[in-house]
Write a structure and sequence with these properties.
The chain is an alpha+beta fold. Helix content is 45%, strand content 13%. It has a domain at 12-78 and 123-205: NADH Oxidase. The chain has a four-stranded antiparallel beta sheet with strand order 1-2-4-3, sandwiched between helices. Bound molecules: flavin mononucleotide (FMN). Residues 11-197 form the Nitroreductase domain.
Length: 223
């Protein structure tokens, strides 16, 4: 593996928002998990708990999550950001609009944007979902370690041609997820990763996000 290969893999990966129904074999999912677990973590605590759905279990979860999202106010274990300001707000809007433009939701179309939001709870029709949680005891650092795991998972999947999308939206129903997957109360549900093969022709997969130049986030301290 060289940097070029890694960069190509990272450039290929993108968030997939429409999946084909084809199941991924359990052994292949295990391969992805086996690579992702190589992510670094503070004290090598490896704090990630991963609840993975397959087959009919995904469809049951999807139906229950949609029901939950339609009937209950969100209550994430980890509070969502209260606001995005400045450049963060700009980037948030840019990726939101890119999605809306791709799927034909126009400015002011509240029903259209609500429909698109609900696609999160349908797991974008993915055949699999991995719910990621971390011991509350480890606080923000456990969440940080799990962030690394999520990235490693997405890259490992991409290397096998499997598309992914990390989803905070799924984690917005914390109490439900604890009940549904029997996740201990002293764990924080952080996010989910829906995954499967991409429905490449779907308009929701027809755009890519960009990245800021190095100077926008790097302070060099030379000499
Ligand atoms: C922790 C995390 C949570 C996310 N939650 C959602 C989500 O709930 N719904 C969604 O459509 N995308 C979600 N995304 C995907 C981001 O919007 C996406 O990563 C970002 O716009 C960059 O685009 P890319 O992944 O295609 O490179 C999430 C990404 C991360 C890392």
């Amino acid at each position: 593996m060289d940097l070029q290969a890694l960069d190509a893999l990272m450039a290929e990966r993108h968030s997939c928002r429409a999946f084909a129904p084809t199941e991924i074999p359990k052994a292949t999912i295990a391969q992805v998990l086996a690579t992702a677990r190589r992510a670094p973590s503070w004290c090598n605590a490896q704090p990630w708990r991963v609840d993975v759905t397959r087959g009919a279990a995904t469809d049951r979860f999807r139906a229950a999550l949609i029901e939950q999202a339609q009937s209950t106010a969100p209550k994430p274990d980890l509070p969502f950001p209260g606001s995005y300001s400045g450049v963060f707000q700009d980037r948030r809007r840019a990726c939101g609009w890119a999605l809306y433009e791709a799927v034909g939701v126009t400015k002011g179309d509240r029903a259209g944007s609500a429909r698109e939001m609900m696609r999160n709870f349908a797991l974008f029709d993915a055949p699999h979902c991995a719910v990621i949680s971390s011991p509350a005891e480890l606080g923000a650092y456990g969440a940080m370690d799990c962030g690394g795991f999520v990235t490693a998972f997405c890259l490992a999947a991409q290397a096998l041609g499997i598309a992914t999308i990390p989803q905070a939206a799924v984690a917005s129903h914390g109490p439900f997820l604890h009940r549904y997957f029997d996740i201990p109360q002293d764990f924080l549900v952080l996010c989910a990763i829906s995954f499967g093969y991409s429905d490449t022709a779907h308009p929701a997969n027809g755009f890519r996000t960009d990245r800021a130049e190095l100077d926008a986030f790097t302070q060099w301290h030379d000499g």
